[in-house]
Amino acid sequence: EVAARQRVENEGIPSKYDGPSAWQISLYRKYLRLRDGIVNTGISLYNGTMGWMIPSSSFQYQHSVLPPNAPRIVDTLMRVH
């Protein structure tokens, strides 16, 4: 605590978070899931028809890495503590 207090005195109060909001990040995550679903539907249709007849030509399903929703996590932590 002493080190944190001294750092605030030397550097000043950290600036306010200026990134995307929790709502914007949740919309982006929904967009990624929707895009994966649409692409995977096409892949599934292809793998079920041409990929089944020619096994070497089947495609792998797409799975996007979803970013963590940092603002929502911080809000939850602040409510808990």
Topology record:
Elements: H1 2-11, H2 22-48, H3 50-53, H4 70-80
Task: Describe the fold and architecture.
There is one protein chain. With 81 residues, this protein is mainly α. It contains 4 helices and no strands. The longest helix has 27 residues, at 22-48. It is rod-shaped, with a radius of gyration of 22 Å. The model has no long low-confidence stretch (mean pLDDT 88).
Question: Which descriptor suits the 3D outline?
Answer: rod-shaped
Helix percent band: 55-70%
Element order: H for helix, E for strand: HHHH
Classification by helices and strands: mainly alpha
How much of the polypeptide forms β-strand, as a percent range? under 5%
- The value of Rg in angstroms is 22 Å
Uncertain segments: none
For the termini, the CA-CA separation is: 16 Å
Give the count of helical stretches: 4
What characterizes the major β-sheet?
none
Number of strands: 0
Average pLDDT confidence is 88
Protein traits:
single chain, 81 residues
